[in-house]
Amino acid sequence: MDPIVGTQIGQYRVNRPIGNGGIGSVFEATHQQIGRRVAIKVLRAEHARNQETVTRLFNEARAVNRVEHPGLVQIFDCDYLPDGRAYLVMEYLHGETLTQRMAGSGGRLGSTTALRIAYQLASILAATHGANIVHRDPKQIYKIPMSHRYTTTQRRRQGHDVSNTATRAHIFNRNDLC
Prior knowledge:
By secondary structure, this protein is α+β, with helices and mostly antiparallel strands. The chain folds into 2 domains: 8-91, 2-Layer Sandwich (Phosphorylase Kinase, domain 1); 95-157, no CATH class. Helices cover 30% and strands 25% of the residues. It is built from 5 helices and 8 strands, in the order E-E-E-E-H-H-E-E-E-H-H-E-H. A 6-stranded antiparallel sheet has the order 1-2-3-4-6-5. It has a two-stranded antiparallel ribbon with strand order 7-8. It starts with 7 loop residues before the first strand and ends in a 21-residue tail after the last helix.
């Protein structure tokens, strides 16, 4: 188990690891005062020494917060751990990734589902491009949690627009300076 589990990062108690990527790990954490669950992305030590990588991570936070779109994962905070590793505090999403959804459906999505996801991604990209943010890392788009927080049926019953309810993505511009 990662030594960060069980420790405190700011106001957050780290509960468990929830994922690993190319440059870091993601942990579930809970705000100690209000009980809010969050995801904390922490750079691996070898990447934390690379200022360009740290700058890109913090740019992600800045860029996401320049665009208001229900399909973008919200980032609440960014800072450094005492050991020098940079981190982001993000919205915790319930659900499954697109990869998990496809694996559970035999590696294929139905045409209606695929079109709905494509429409939602196009909407996210349009919003980010409208804020002069260009997505330069297309593989990030494929890391899309399928949120069960608000299902299409629930949102429709509540009278909400259902066009952006299922996909959430990280979109950022590496060239924005921190």
